[in-house]
Amino acid sequence: MEAEKDIPKTTKCLNCGTKFEGNFCPECGQNADTGRFTMKLIVENLTSAILGRDGGVWFTLKNLVTRPSSMIVDILNGKRKRYFSPFPMLFFCLALYIVILSFTNEHAFKESFYDSQIEFKGLDDSEQSQTEVYKLFSQTLDFLNNHYTLSYIMTLPLWLLGARLCYGKNNRKRYYWAEYIITIVYASVIVVLFRCLIKLTYFIDKDLSLQLGTILSPIITIVAFTACFKKMLGFSIAKTAWRSVLVTAMYYILLGIIILIYVIISVIILAKRLQYI
Ligand SMILES: [Zn+2]
Question: How far is the CA of 40 from the centre of ligand 1 (A)?
Answer without folding.
Answer: 23
